[in-house]
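Q&A log
Question type: sequence-to-structure
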Amino acid sequence: MILQEVYDFLDKISPFELQEKWDNSGLIVGDMSREVTQTILSLDVDEEIIASAKEGTLFIVHHPLIFGKLTQLDFAKYPSNLIEKMILKKQSLIAMHTNFDQTHLNKYVFEKVLGFKLASQNPFVCIAKGEWKYKALLTLLKEKLGLPTLKVIGKKESIKTIALTTGAGASLMDEVEADCFLTGDIKYHDAMKAMSENLMMVDIGHYESERYFAEILLDELKVLPILAIIANSKNPFHIETIE
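Response status: OK
Response body:
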């Protein structure tokens, strides 16, 4: 397939125009007229994934490799070091970030991974209504997301509404009308604000809540006449226990 054909298909299932103004979804590296030999789907792209991929590969990732102003290409530094490697192998990169959050990722994690019944959804926040006990909810989150530990703000023994935003969604807390808000990358001052407003929050991890991107997209790409492969980029964080 030609890169433009793949791009047009992605734009149909999750329109790039839905992305936030600060986002950089769409074509990051490549030539729309160039032939694509295969696609590799991943949350992020890294040196190992690039090195193992053959020439002409199209990477479709969740997080844009170029994010914000790029004023120089210093090939000794990130992200220019990865861009250089892709260019030398005639590889391409498309990012599907906040557009895909709205059309696919949040709902998938909420319903398919965590098993909640969707009561309502704005572009980035899913809401469920029901009855959950504090410990039971935390146990469910740890088991379903594979989290060894949880950072929790506040404590409510009876929870009747749960909200979720995958990735880093703490900035949306003013829009959340729920007893408990699940998201990742919760900062200290966000936690202080949540405590003062009696909003229980649980940090479910940025990587951990978004790592389903590739498997969701793989199912969509099955209709295309091109090989699609999942590559699992590494979580930059790890839990270190020092005895």
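Response note: The first strand starts at residue 26 and ends at 29.
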